[in-house]
Design brief:
The chain contains 22 helices and 5 strands. By secondary structure, the chain is α/β, with parallel strands linked by helices. Helix 3 runs parallel beside helix 5 and helix 4 packs parallel to helix 6.
Length: 430
């Protein structure tokens, strides 16, 4: 159990989403808790946490548990055994927690709020390309593999022995395995058929995958036959190589980590390299009793090294520095616009409402305003806008930073600071 918790806590998917501070990660926790409570015959708990999830992000908090639980109960022939009083208790807890907010918003704003939230932010996100371009059916396969890093090698190698045993009828599929497989793969299939795919949507599948992986690792550790343990050896060697590759990539990309202290950057690289050696020693000696604690410790070292050695710094964040520039150069309440950069959190740090300019035409109209205005824009976008509109903006200041959302494998293999580091400008029209 603690190994499953360690896998989920130290997998890259949860780490990355925690850095974004979006509601998807706590929603995944509530969905996990709701499914567990329902399977453990705790209807009041299931209804209450589903209500919290519904309050947090809407219908998914109900839909994901439903599409997981109904097939499980049908397979276990438990649908007819569900007691009406349990359904009533769960529904009451859900309604008490999850519905008052939507009632208050409907009373205040009418049906427009419900249409915007349930139709726009939920149905259209799932069924249309309004929020992002359509993505291929296999989109989530690398997302899951990347989300399980640095445990992905174990997930890719260890389960095949169990799959073969079940397929060749050497043993039956256990009840717990069936539940976990349904819990993981039905939501994954559900999101795969959607149009508006986003990596963060599949966070709820990581806990059941973590439990399945922990079961597989522990089973391999206690196999008496040497053949199954060979898969554990291969997976551990592959993970050691993965750590070594990460250390090399971070070393190559170190010129991009301008927000981090060089001491922390190279210290983190050293710790990741040491983790690779420890895992190699473990694979060579096959002292599997140390595997859970060793792998969990190495995963923690990896994520902390990436966080403080590459992504974070002791100084102020880029958006805070842009907000300081705005406070310095804003003279008499001028309108502030942002064009496709820092628009989500700029208002929080400036404490001033800004105009979110969503296309080039609106930006040009904004800059041609008869009054003085301030614009936050990338240097590359500004050059293009000035060329298109025949205008010249007055540059007031700039902030350079690494936009982690744009980091790709190419960025790490062949870093180009002039190209990969973004320059955010604060400009005025006069």
């Amino acid at each position: 159990a603690w190994l499953a918790a360690a896998i989920v806590a130290t997998c890259f998917g949860c780490f990355a989403m925690a850095r974004f501070a979006l509601p998807d990660l706590p929603l995944a926790f509530l969905i996990t808790l709701a499914i567990w409570a329902a399977l453990d015959d705790r209807p009041l708990v299931a209804g209450a946490v589903a209500g919290l999830g519904f309050l947090m992000k809407g219908p998914l908090a109900l839909m994901i548990p439903a599409i997981v639980l109904i097939p499980i109960w049908w397979h276990e022939q438990r649908l007819r055994q569900i007691r009406p009083r349990d359904v009533a208790a769960a529904a009451a807890a859900f309604a008490l927690i999850g519905l008052p907010w939507y009632g208050a918003m409907t009373f205040e704003h009418g049906s427009a709020y419900l249409e915007s939230f349930f139709v726009g932010d939920n149905l259209e996100r799932f069924a249309t390309n309004r929020f992002n371009a359509p993505r291929p059916l296999w989109f989530y396969l690398p997302i899951v593999a990347g989300g399980l890093l640095p445990w992905s090698m174990y997930a890719a190698i260890l389960p095949w022995q169990s799959v073969r045993d079940v397929a060749w009828r050497r043993r039956p599929l256990m009840k717990e395995e069936w539940r976990l497989l349904a819990w993981a793969f039905i939501p994954l299939l559900f999101f795969t058929i959607s149009i508006g795919k986003q990596p963060r949507y599949i966070l709820p599948v990581l806990p059941p995958l973590g439990i399945l992986l922990a079961r597989s690792i522990v089973r391999r550790m206690h196999e008496v036959d040497g053949a199954p343990q060979k898969t554990l050896t291969v997976a551990t060697w592959a993970t050691a190589v993965l750590y070594a590759i990460v250390a090399i990539l971070l070393t190559r990309a170190s010129p991009l980590f301008i927000m981090a202290s060089p001491l922390l950057t190279y210290g983190g690289i050293g710790l990741i390299s040491a983790s690779a050696l420890v895992l190699a020693w473990l694979a060579a000696t096959r002292r599997w009793r140390f595997l859970p604690t060793t792998m969990a410790s190495c995963a923690t070292v990896l994520l902390l090294s990436v966080q403080f050695g590459a992504l974070a710094g002791a100084g102020t964040e880029p958006v805070e520095r842009v907000a300081d520039l705005i406070r310095t150069h804003r003279q008499s309440g001028e309108p502030i616009g942002a064009y496709q950069v820092l628009e989500r959190n700029l208002g929080f740090y400036t404490r001033v409402k800004h105009v979110d300019l969503i296309d080039e035409g609106r930006v040009l109209d904004f800059l041609k305003s008869p009054e003085r205005v301030l614009l936050v824009v990338r240097d590359t976008d500004l050059s293009r806008l000035e060329s298109i509109g025949g205008i010249t903006a007055k540059r007031l200041g700039e902030v350079q930073y690494l936009n982690t959302a744009n980091v790709r494998l190419r960025t790490l293999i062949s870093p180009l600071p002039e190209q990969d580091l973004e320059r955010v400008l604060l400009v005025a029209n006069k």
